[in-house]
Write a structure and sequence with these properties.
Distance between the termini: 30 Å
Order of helices and strands: EEEHEEHEHHHEHEHEEHH
Strand content: 15-25%
Oligomer: single chain
Number of strands: 10
Strand order of the largest sheet: 6-7-8-3-9-10
Number of helices: 9
Radius of gyration: 18 Å
CATH architecture of the largest domain: 3-Layer(aba) Sandwich
CATH topology of the largest domain: Rossmann fold
Number of domains: 2
Bound molecules: adenosine-5'-triphosphate, magnesium ion
CATH superfamily of the largest domain: P-loop containing nucleotide triphosphate hydrolases
Length: about 240
C-alpha cells in the first residue's frame, strides 16, 4: 500500500531521518517505536505531506506522492493525528469534525449530512455526547485527542497515521484505545502508529519498526524485534 524509500530529512545540521526504507501492507497495523528524538514524528510528517523530504520517494497505491501537500495527501486517503493536538480554540468539537467530513475527501456532503457524520464519528471514538457542541478551548487533552481521531476518520482514510494517541492514558483508557484501533482496522483502514506504551504497541501491532537517531534499526514481528539486542540496548533498556 505504501512504499517509502531512502527517506531523508535534515533540520540545519541535524539528520532527523536518515535514508529510511519502509513499506506497509494493506490491512496491516504497523507500530513505529524508538527513543525520544529518533525521528518517528518527522517520518510520519513526511508521509502525510506536512514536511517535504530532502531525499527519497513515497509511493502510495503505486502513485508517487513525494512532496505533495498535506491536503492533497489527505484527499488521497492518508490521514494523521498529531502528537500535540492543536486546534482553533473557538471552534466547536462538532465543527472541527465537520470540516474534515466536508473538505477532507472527495465525497460531496451538505451541512446536515456533515453534522450527522461528525456526530457518528465522535460517538465512535467515545467522545462525551454532552460536549459535542462545546468549544475546543473547553476540552481536556483526552477529549481533544478524541476530536482529532474523529476528525481523521471523517476524512475517510484508507491509511491512518497515529502519533502517540494513547500517551498519558491510564491502563483502562489505553485498553479502550486498543479496542478502538482494532475496530478501525476491522472496518478496512490500514494503520501506522507511534506509541511509547509497549502494552499498546504489542497489543495491536502486526509488525514493528524501530528508529534510533533517524536510522531504522529493526523491522519485523513484535516477538522478533523486541528480542533484538540492539533494540533492547537503544530503546527498551531491558527485555520486555
Ligand atoms: N521542525 C523541526 N525543526 C527543527 N528540528 C526538528 C523539527 N522537528 C523535529 N526536529 C528534530 O528532529 C529530531 C527528531 O524529532 P522527532 O520529533 O521526529 O522525534 P520523535 O521520534 O518523534 O521523538 P518523541 O518520541 O520525543 O516524540 C529531534 O532531534 C528534533 O529536535
Ligand atoms: Mg514524536
Amino acid at each position: 500500500m505504501l512504499v517509502a524509500e531512502q527517506i531523508r530529512k535534515t533540520f540545519g545540521g541535524l539528520v532527523a531521518v536518515q535514508d529510511v526504507d519502509l513499506h506497509l501492507q494493506e490491512g496491516e497495523i504497523l507500530g513505529l517505536v524508538g527513543p525520544n528524538g529518533a525521528g518517528k514524528t518527522t517520518l510520519l510528517n513526511i508521509i502525510s505531506g506536512l514536511y517535504k523530504p530532502d531525499n527519497g520517494s513515497i509511493h502510495y497505491k503505486g502513485e508517487n506522492i513525494t512532496g505533495l501537500a498535506l491536503n492533497s495527501v489527505c484527499k488521497k486517503g492518508i490521514a494523521k493525528t498529531f502528537q500535540h493536538p492543536q486546534s482553533f480554540p473557538g471552534m466547536l468539537a462538532s465543527e472541527a469534525v465537520m470540516v474534515s467530513a466536508i473538505f477532507g475527501n472527495h465525497h460531496k456532503v451538505n451541512m446536515k449530512e456533515a453534522r450527522d457524520e461528525a456526530v457518528g464519528h465522535l460517538d465512535f471514538v467515545h467522545f462525551p455526547k454532552e460536549k459535542i457542541d462545546a468549544s475546543l478551548s473547553q476540552l481536556n487533552l483526552m477529549e481533544l485527542k478524541r476530536v482529532q481521531l474523529a476528525r481523521a476518520l471523517a476524512s475517510q482514510p484508507r491509511l491512518l497515521l497515529l502519533d502517540e494517541l494513547t500517551t498519558g492514558l491510564n491502563p483502562n483508557e489505553s485498553d479502550e484505545a486498543i479496542g478502538l484501533i482494532r475496530k478501525i482496522r476491522e472496518e478496512g483502514t490500514t494503520i501506522m502508529l507511534i506509541e511509547h506504551v509497549m502494552r499498546v504497541i504489542t497489543g495491536v501491532s502486526d509488525r514493528i519498526v524501530v528508529l534510533d537517531h533517524g536510522v531504522k534499526i529493526a523491522d519485523g514481528t513484535p516477538l522478533d524485534v523486541l528480542n533484538e539486542q540492539r533494540v533492547i540496548d537503544s530503546y527498551l533498556g531491558e527485555k520486555y
